[in-house]
Amino acid sequence: YYNRGVVRSELGDKPGAIDDFNLAIKINPNDANAYNNRGLVRYKLGDKPGAIDDYNLAIKINPNLAQAYGNRGLVYYQLGDKQKAIENLQRAAQLFLAQGDTASYEQIMNLLKRL
To answer: In terms of pTM, does the model score above 0.85?
Structure first.
């Protein structure tokens, strides 16, 4: 269900993607990536508080999930909480660098410079 959720999201079927991520989470409640991706879809549907809830759950399950920190930081920024945005984006950058993902690290650092 996780992979199908990703595909549905990419094809624009946001409600279908949410359904699939819900099923993936029901099968494996410890799948941090499923929460992170459901958060992305919720964000795209305009549910920013729901997106933050999902990013929080993803981070609780996997505190090293850099993408979730980055996503949460962007939502906080859009909600006007610049301090939380910076904290989350800095944590994402640290994790991306530690994990050897220099492209994502540089992308986050460039974003931080513009905040």
So the answer is: yes
